[in-house]
Write a structure and sequence with these properties.
Shape: globular
Order of helices and strands: HEHHHEHEHEEEEEHEHEHEEEEHEHHHE
Number of strands: 16
Helix content: 25-40%
CATH architecture of the largest domain: 3-Layer(aba) Sandwich
Structural class: alpha/beta
Strand content: 15-25%
Number of domains: 2
Largest sheet: 8 strands, mixed
CATH topology of the largest domain: Rossmann fold
Distance between the termini: 36 Å
CATH class of the largest domain: Alpha Beta
Length: 387
């Protein structure tokens, strides 16, 4: 694989860190008789304790990191989410919010600030975070932006054991879930695994196909030499959320497609993407631990998993329509901004809603239970676009 021409080279310290993780992964490959699944590799590369990309202590988000998420672009994004949360919380005085993977804590802080303004705060704002480094960053962000609301924030390492009422949020979380990769060669399906070659990471193909992957293969008609991926963790994850949700909504925001587009014949190299210092490329073996590894989300898979888990599909749309439905322009017009801030807001709105930016590639799906009122962010529910 050709080495990408990165705009910046990792520091010597960063390279030492990456080498430690590489050696750890190579030792795991030896333990598993010379090969591991790509999902296992992705799990190690992103989440290995103290070494994985999300576990290690280095900047990931923002201009100094590797990518910028919507909450970092503008508070307007979180203000719109707060309005959707308000619609649910107004019916549950003891309702909670639960956020997965809260990044820097920016979204949590701005949601709490906005809800405080309208006097509809959650009893608790739970954050599920496994990284000690990110938890510290989230604490510092919330303490700096809204110290008076910090007492409502509770960090968890697992899902709560009690029945949950309120809103479960996951913004750009599913794309970082470990995925299995596969390749179609001469009408046969092979799982793409990770092995060692000359003390380096390499791809290898396996005939020992997972039953789920084989079943999935028979349901589709792919052209020859087709490469893609499937998230086998998604269905059990949705089921785990269904198990704790009593009344409320699950709001999932990420980049991706419905299944017909996800597995389009022309998308024959899959959707795997890596990010390092705002440079996107497709080599997941380059600098393990220093770069993000992602795959787009199959939203049809989410919808099917939701129905199997007895959850209602309350809405599905793209990010631009969702934000506008939640009052994006009203948030903009009611803000008291300087001329410079107005210019920055206009630029942010373009990034968040333009089809050429995040507006249409990013989708929003709402799942729920015992919700009768149409949700603000979904003016038109048309399940044909997703199933």
């Amino acid at each position: 694989m050709i080495k990408p021409d990165f705009p910046t080279t990792p520091t010597p310290e960063a390279l030492v860190h990456s080498k430690k993780l590489l050696n750890h992964i190579l030792s795991q490959i030896k333990t598993y008789h010379g090969e591991i699944s790509f999902a296992q590799y992705m799990e190690l590369a992103l989440y290995a304790p103290q070494l994985g990309y999300y576990s290690a202590s280095h900047q990931k988000f923002g201009k100094e990191g590797d990518f910028i998420t919507a909450p970092e672009i503008s508070p307007l994004f979180s203000q719109c989410l707060a309005r959707q949360c308000q619609q649910i919380l107004k019916n549950f005085p003891e309702g909670n919010i639960l956020e997965f993977g809260a990044g820097t804590g920016t979204m949590a802080a701005h949601i709490l600030i906005e809800l405080s303004k309208i006097c509809i705060l959650p009893k608790n704002y739970f954050i599920i975070e496994l990284s000690a480094y990110l938890k510290k960053q989230q604490y510092e962000t919330i303490a700096a932006l809204c110290p008076e609301l910090l007492s409502r924030v509770v960090w968890l390492s697992t899902l709560p054991k009690f029945k949950f009422n309120g809103i479960i949020l996951a913004n750009e979380v599913l794309d970082a879930m470990p995925i299995c990769r596969f390749q179609i060669i001469e009408g046969n399906i092979y799982e793409i695994k990770v092995c060692e070659k000359d003390n380096k990471l390499s791809y290898c193909l396996s005939n020992n196909i997972l039953p789920e992957l084989l079943e999935f293969y028979h349901a589709h008609h792919w052209p020859l030499d087709y490469i893609s991926e499937i998230n086998l963790n998604l269905t059990p994850w949705i089921l785990s959320l269904s198990d704790i949700l009593d009344t409320g909504i699950i709001l999932l925001i990420d980049y991706g497609f419905p299944e017909k587009e996800y597995y389009h014949p022309q998308r024959n190299m899959g959707t795997l993407m890596c990010h390092y210092r705002h440079y996107a490329h497709t080599d997941p073996f380059l600098y393990p631990g220093l770069q993000d590894i992602t795959a787009h989300v199959n939203f049809t898979h989410i919808a099917i998993a939701a129905m199997q888990s007895n959850l209602d599909i309350l809405g599905y749309t793209h990010q631009a329509a969702f934000l506008l439905g939640c009052g994006l322009m009203e948030c903009l017009t009611t803000a008291k901004n300087t001329e410079k801030e107005k210019i920055l807001n206009n630029s942010a709105i373009h990034k968040l809603t333009s089809p050429a930016e995040m507006g249409e590639l990013f989708k929003v799906i709402a799942l729920g239970r015992h919700i009768e009122e149409p949700l603000l962010g979904f003016n038109l529910i048309d399940r044909r676009h997703i199933l």
